[in-house]
Amino acid sequence: MGSNSSKPKAAKITAHDKAILDLKVQRDRLKQYNKKLENVITKETDNAKKHLAKGEKQRALLALRRKKFQEGLLEKTNLQMTNLDELTFSIEQALVEKQVFEGLAAGNQVLKELQKEMSLSDVEKLMDETADAIAYQNEIDELLSTRLSEAEVEDIERELDALVEAEMAAKLPAVPAPSAREVEAPVEEEQEEQVVPVAQKKKVKGKAALNEPMLA
Fold it and tell me: Where is coiled-coil annotated (predicted)?
């Protein structure tokens, strides 16, 4: 059941399509008939030449008469084919014009419905409301700009500068943090500087003790 439902539906053949198809079938039949007539005309021409070569003038004349009759039929079928082609073309052209007309009619109907939903008065009202809203916003902006004090204006400018600096800082590449060894190195040097003076002081005290005179 699923496979049957997925099959595309065949296009519906209308009366116009059938009429065009019938005309084309008749034209094809006339083409085949014309081909047979041309073959017969060629054959009768050859027969007339053969009879004349044998001195059979009456038979040659009869072959030419048959050829003439076939040529008349061929002329009529050619005219019928021309009429069929013109009629087929006219029907196809009329169908195209009908489709164009139907498309224009549908588009015109849609346009009318849209115009009903958006009348001229509604557009004018909307434009007036938009203009009023813009004017009101301009008045608010003007009032806000005129009522600010000089200190408030300076504060706003400083805030703007801070925002600009923050934006620029965010765009700069991040600086790498110092390692633990680089941070502890100055402390060790400072400790060495403090240890050396203490040792020197002890050495100086020892020398001073030796240099003192011994009491009796």
Answer: 20-47
